Request: fold
Amino acid sequence: MRGFISSKKDRRLFLLALPGLLGACASNQFMAASPVPNGMTLAKSRIYVYSFMDVRDSEFGPTMLAEIDSQLVAELAKASVTARVLRFKDSEAGKYYSTTNSGMSVPTGQTIVGNLANEKSLAANYRLVIFPSDMRIVGAWKYYQVRWELFDVTTNKQVWLATSQGKHLTFVKNDEDPQARAKTIVDGFIGELRKYRLL
Reply:
């Protein structure tokens, strides 16, 4: 980087332009989604969100993960949807999970079962499971795939499944431009819900 940023003035200009560069290098597109049951809507519902994004906390960064949680709750609230988020590593099942053990399976079912009392106290209608199903690092680029699964709490059946693919460029550290990167992911999800008239 020092090869093309030779002076203090050049470095200052680069740092000022960095957020815009990072934002322009982030994307998140939905590649596939299942049909929606006739008449289904999330408006005025209550959703318990199980976020397993922190399985990849070292790649996404803690601030970006916090932004995803808060932005998702805020955007759903705009559509009169009450949402509560449980991060995997904050759950009883996730307390001792180690991200250094790549062969360790993630106990998604155990996490949900261990939280059913909290679902009931929220009077949740739906359960949203967010899972980073793939992460590839190619040079400074991170490419990731996220599964979004929506379940009817009453029947315990999956009512909608969608997959998104995203990418972003890392210049210096993993937690760069967390607000804009989280917004790319959340806006994509909210847009997909609107596309299927779920909101």
